[in-house]
Amino acid sequence: MTLADRLRAALEAPAPGDLLPGDLLDGEEGDDVAAAVLVAITRRPEPGVLLTVRREHLRTHAGQVAFPGGRVDPEDADIAAAALREAEEEIGLPRSAVTVWGMADPYRTVTGYRVIPVVGEVDADLPLLAHEQEVADLFEAPLAFLLDPANQRRMSADFRGARRHYYEIAWEGRRIWGATAAMLVNLTRRLGA
């Protein structure tokens, strides 16, 4: 059974008890704006994950590595439709090119979003085009590397007057951290359950 097969099966299993719920500290309230991201896994012998680098001028998460995604709009039929729409807008990934496997576990961000990762498979080497206003770069990182606990470092920093912990994954000079890294950690924990 391949890593991709194991991940697909893990999405159907009950959630393990050690998942990261989000960035909020005990007692903090969030707006819980509904958002969706697409964890697009490339169909190849050693699958990868499509990631973006957000433009520096954006209001939130500027310059960060992220999954394609964003807020759920009223016209979106459901969470998966929102993730697919956002991926099409941000990286030119046709909705019809994604085979949705399922939804992973929600993650609440300190910026007030309740993000649902939608996991799916896409053909490798599709001709994608980064949205010039939102995406500075687009790249693929190996799924096995991202889901290896040895590459997921727990870090801490002071933010809004409190000590917060987060995860960081370094790959080929890229810093994948915060909510994106936490969602990958949650996928890893699902695999290990």
Automatic annotation (TrEMBL):
Domain Nudix hydrolase span(s) in chain numbering: 32-163
- What keywords sit in the KW lines? Hydrolase, Magnesium, Manganese, Metal-binding
Q: Which organism is it from?
A: Sphingomonas humi
Q: Which PANTHER family match?
A: MITOCHONDRIAL COENZYME A DIPHOSPHATASE NUDT8, NUDIX HYDROLASE
Identify the Pfam families for this entry: NUDIX
Q: Which cofactor does it need?
A: Mn(2+); Mg(2+)
PROSITE patterns the record matches: NUDIX (PS51462)
Q: What is this protein called?
A: Nudix hydrolase domain-containing protein
InterPro entries cross-referenced by the UniProt entry: CoAse (IPR045121), NUDIX_hydrolase-like_dom_sf (IPR015797), NUDIX_hydrolase_dom (IPR000086)
